[in-house]
Design a protein that fits this description.
With 161 residues, the chain is mostly helical. It has one domain. The chain contains eight helices and no strands. Helix 3 packs parallel to helix 6 and helix 4 runs antiparallel to helix 6.
Length: 161
Amino acid sequence: MTQSLWDFSVALYARPRVAGLCLALQDEAGADVCLLLAALWLERRGVAASPARVARLEELARPWQATVTTPLRGLRRAWKDAAQGDAVLAELRGQLAALELQAERRLLERLQGLSADWAVASEGRAGNWLEALAATWPSVSAEHRAALQQLRSAATELTQP
């Protein structure tokens, strides 16, 4: 049985440097971390990448991120300094973090559902999901490309699905 996108994401995110790389790409390049994780999962499964498939993933993720995840993240980040001196606010901020994670999990489940019928490509023809995804970003620096390669390496090091 294939590892779920959520289980893959949890395992990958726990690896050294992965969280920092994902968050840097999110903050600096405007990357969607859930789409990064989905791209790595699809690439690892050998599913063929295409601009149309990337567009479908983005069409699903964009409204969810804009109306659910990003507002939760923004509020959590806005409370960071104030919560250091206020135990009640710190507790509420922790609840926001848990809710943000739950929203990300639901998005990953939706992304998995969308891609469920995408067949595995023939040997060596899966394509490069990370490059296809990065092609949709406003700009991609050499540092961003290096971060993508480090993420791919970390995903490759995980036990096969």
